[in-house]
Design a protein that fits this description.
- The protein is of the alpha+beta class.
- It has four helices and five strands; from the N terminus they run H-H-H-E-E-H-E-E-E.
- The protein has one domain.
- Helix 3 packs antiparallel against helix 4 (96-116).
- The protein is elongated.
- The termini are far apart.
């Protein structure tokens, strides 16, 4: 009799804890502030500006085919949330005066974006490439291990 009473109370407790999942319940729950439409729209616009500037940089670099790696240089570009560059980019040495300000501007914009939206990253250091190779008219960054760096 005592066991039946304990089992009954346990079942009653489990049933009373069960909640209904319905559209009405989810509408009353607190929302994550990062999911607010105005924040998402602003972040999308800022991200679009970064993407647009990166495309501009890539298009400018693409004006010069890579035929001799000695005519090319590389530099850090972008900013990881933990600090340091997000990657490296190759560019024709003869465009250095025009391209470096664009790269620096992109890096500053990405750093501000990271701070504005409180982003986090893996904090891994991105190592610089060891050399530049020309493949199919494009500059390719290569690391010491022989692994091609993504550009």
């Amino acid at each position: 009799m005592k066991n039946i009473f304990i089992i009954g109370i346990a079942l009653l407790s489990l049933v009373s804890c069960k909640t209904k999942k319905s559209a009405e319940n989810t509408d009353t729950l607190p929302k994550d502030i990062s999911l607010k439409p105005e924040n998402n729209m602003a972040q999308q616009e800022d991200r679009q500006q970064l993407t647009s500037l990166m495309r501009e940089i890539d298009a400018f670099i693409a004006l010069e085919p890579c035929t001799n790696p000695a005519d090319w240089k590389f530099t850090a570009i972008g900013a990881k949330p933990c600090g340091g560059p997000s990657s490296y980019i190759a560019y024709p040495a003869k465009f250095e005066a025009q391209i470096l300000p664009k790269i620096e501007h992109f890096t500053q914009m990405q750093s501000a974006f990271n701070k504005k939206y409180n982003l986090m990253s893996d904090c891994a250091m991105v190592m610089p490439p060891s050399e530049i190779r020309c493949e199919n008219g494009k500059a390719v960054l290569v690391r010491d291990s022989g692994v091609t760096a993504i550009q």
